[in-house]
Amino acid sequence: MSATIYLDESGYTGPNLTNREQPFFVLASVNFTESEASELRDEFFAGVKTKELKHKSLSANAKQHNMVLAYLEYLGHNPDRFKLYAVDKEFAAVTKVIDYFVESAAHAVGEDIYSNGHAFAMANMLYYSLRAGETCLYCNGILSRFEGLLRDPSMIRYNDFFDYVERPVANRELDAALGWIRASRELIEPDSILAGGPAGLDIIFTTALNLMSRWRTQLGQDFYVVHDYSSPMVAEQALWEALPSVDVPPESIGFVPKSMQFPIGVLSTTFGNSQEFIGLQLADVLAGAVAKSLAVKMQDGNDRYIDLIGDQAIGLSAATIMPGKPEDWPESSTSITSPDYALEFIGKYNPKTRAGM
Fold it and tell me: Measured over all CA atoms, what is the biggest interatomic distance in the chain, rounded to whole angstroms?
């Protein structure tokens, strides 16, 4: 019998990666039959009287905090039943700046900055220098202009971004990091940036694909997916149903350890109402607990709920886009798929692309 993976997210803000109220995006997936999910609800959340489990409600009720902790402890002892993807959205925005400008410029002169972790090192240097105390305002300025450029592509925004980047800064490390971006202005064509659009800032689709590829590797067989119908992925339903399907030919996209192996083998995806699927509710609790824990821990805030569950939530195994994680970057160029090829591969299965839209 084929498995069913339930998928839900927390902290999604679309192309606004610098949202201060929700700094982390977490995509959670669980592998339970509905019968198992019902048993887990009875075991860990028997005292909850509402029909639907929602992390937001559980976290607001002190009497239910230990229920969440017990559930997270169960998952910690059963890592084969869940998979997570956690993203520091501000760092993700910085990595996209490196991808769009520095990587493109390096590619134009025959250099591969993905080799040996160079791109990751650059992203970290830019991220930490932007976040330094005296440059926080500059961080807001550069990332807001970058997001504005992709959300509403135009030469006015393109020039405004570069004009801002080329302003002198006193921080030596930041000035060096910005030098890579400044140099790209002479090496890349504006159209290569303007053609990307707001989709270039979206992180939900690629993280979901990555998790599904990991599930296929673990399960060794095709499987079904149930996702909350309120998910923004509904807007890309046609592409989502085509790309992870069993009909895609064998291919490896990306870089180790975050490469995706095709075919992923999703037999079908149901966008369902979470009230009808306890598996979706359990995925919601997991995603919400991890996202809230990351946010409070980052801000060094005091929160009795996070004091109880935070370490357990953050300690769960997860794929990540986080600063300071060199193990998440490739060790050699032989493990890398060209970003251009990856986009071309995905485009082949995008109905909008095939229709010339």
Answer: 63
Mean pLDDT, residues 131-154: 85
- H helices then E strands: how many in the chain? 16, 8
Q: Tokens at residue 214, please?
A: 């990991």
- Neighbouring C-beta atoms of residue 14, cutoff 10 Å: 13
Spell out the domain ranges in the chain. Answer: 90-200
In 3-state terms, what secondary structure has residue 42?
helix
Place of tokens 């995706």: 260
For the question of whether the overall pTM of this predicted structure is more than 0.85, the answer is yes
Q: Among 32-46, 203-217, 257-271, whose mean pLDDT is lowest?
A: 257-271
Q: Which amino acid is at 289?
A: A
Q: Taking a C-beta distance cutoff of 8 angstroms, is the pair 148, 157 a contact?
A: yes
What mean pLDDT is predicted for residues 237-247? 79
Task: Output 118 or 23, whichever has higher pLDDT.
Answer: 23
* Rounded Cα–Cα distance for residues 221 and 266 (Å): 9
Query: Whole-angstrom Cα distance, residue 89 to residue 92?
Result: 5
What is the rounded CA–CA span in Å between residue 261 and residue 54? 33
Phi first, then psi, for residue 21 (nearest 5°) are: -75, -25
Least Cα distance to 270 among 222, 309, 229 occurs for: 229
Cα atoms in the 13 Å half-sphere on the side-chain side of 67: 22
The vertex-286 CA angle with 282 and 291, nearest 5°, equals 150
> Tell me: the pLDDT tens digits for 100-130?
999 999 988 988 887 667 888 899 999 988 8
As given in the structure block, the two tokens for residue 84 are 């997570």
